[in-house]
Amino acid sequence: MWELKSRWRAVGLGLLLLLSAAAQAAPSAPRRYTPDWQSLDSRPLPRWFDEAKFGVFVHWGVFSVPAWGSEWFWWHWQSERIPAYENFMKENYPPGFSYADFGPQFTARFFHPDQWAALFQAAGAKYVVLTTKHHEGFTNWPSPVSWNWNSKDVGPHRDLVGELGAAVRKRNLRYGLYHSLLEWFHPLYLLDKKNGFKTQYFVGAKTMPELYDLVNSYKPDLIWSDGDWESPDTYWNSTAFLAWLYNDSPVKDEVVVNDRWGQNCSCHHGGYYNCEDKYTPHSLPKHKWEMCTSVDSASWGYRRDMTLSTIASEQEIIEELIQTVSLGGNYLLNIGPTKDGLIDPIFQERLLAVGKWLQINGEAIYASHPWRVQFEKNITVVWYTSKDSAVYATFLYWPENGIINLKSPQTTSATKVTMLGMEGYLTWTQDLQDGFLISLPPLPPTALPVEFAWTLKLINVK
User: Fold this and answer.
1) Domain 375-459 falls in which CATH fold?
2) Average pLDDT, stretch 404-411?
3) CATH 3.20.20.80: which residues of the chain?
4) Mean of per-residue pLDDT scores for the chain
5) What cellular component GO annotations does this protein have (predicted)?
6) Does the global pTM surpass 0.90?
């Protein structure tokens, strides 16, 4: 009897050990996020976004038809009744012409998504963000709740979101979708607004069905939300949507979102922070962020009255990119195509200039991290990044004496310095008073790897 009990004890102990081992070997259940900001904000940001550093933003819609003033044309004309916009309509369109009449003229006739994708890849972008719907409400995909105000039923008769997505993904670029929560003149939104946003007719019938449809249909890597400023996140049901996005959506593990999900969310809640358009911090933020800006400083959409004075120069754009990445951010540069789907040559030129610079200096940008010192200013301006054991010092102006003086890096006997795009080591000295002195290559400007913003790679510095 005692022998039988012992055997059962042995069997029981063995089963316990097997169950314990199985429990340890089994993968832990994925974390479930609850629909509140404390839980949602704890989600780690997918790694790809921080490593990407540079993206292209595309503002395209019916506002590309009047192509005058800005992408807020309808609002400035019909709501604010700005005289310049009213006069523009009187001088160029017949009486009674409505904004909806612009829809059939949004043809996208010369839109070739593979050409766009090739341009964005040549620009060095790692992700592309397309407007699926701006505040005018027109959707660039066949939204089932758009009531014929979409690119499949009106204008191009094409699924613009789907076509561009397929093209950029063939080139291994990440695909992001901009989506405006609000619509200026939608009757249900105006009703909710009149009710002090105590009702949610518009959210239930339009905004949320669109967001779920975009995610399920196109599986975006990024959702760039906007149009949130008039009402709280509780009106938009933002936290419920994000909980589904993180827990159960087809992109739950890789998707990234920004911070525009309701009043007071910007710079406080979401995946990464935009804070505001063209946001530029002066010191290293504690949270991942993105600067979004436009090649045309006066508009995000294409406009026929664009002048060279509002176009950022190649140097200005590259300096902004360097500064943004040094401070831990991503740089999202916007262009606006024409109603026909053409990208203006000046926009192409600026994008290709960034790509040319990144071909040489991308090592200091992609997948880099902020260094312990982000920048210093003496004879020239120097911005620092780091990756693995290397420190990168990008200086914006070539010193007349051909010597760079770096105050922040501490040299060692094993320190080596190279310039990206050139072969061979540079000579350097350590001076107790002047610091780390690096002799630059004695070459004419035409022989340098890039025209401005040169990068030094520092190995074995502290």
Assistant:
1) Immunoglobulin-like (2.60.40)
2) 94
3) 47-364
4) 94
5) lysosome
6) yes
Query: pLDDT, tens digit, for every residue of 263-305?
Result: 999 999 999 999 999 999 999 999 999 999 999 999 999 999 9
Q: Which two tokens stand for residue 173?
A: 């670029």
* Start and end residues for every CATH 2.60.40.1180 domain found in the chain: 375-459
Architecture in CATH for domain 47-364: Alpha-Beta Barrel (3.20)
Number of other residues whose CB lies within 10 A of the CB of residue 198: 8
Question: Does pLDDT of 11 surpass 80?
Answer: no
Residue 18: pLDDT band with limits 50, 70, 90: very low
Whether residue 249 is predicted with pLDDT greater than 90 in this model: the reply is yes
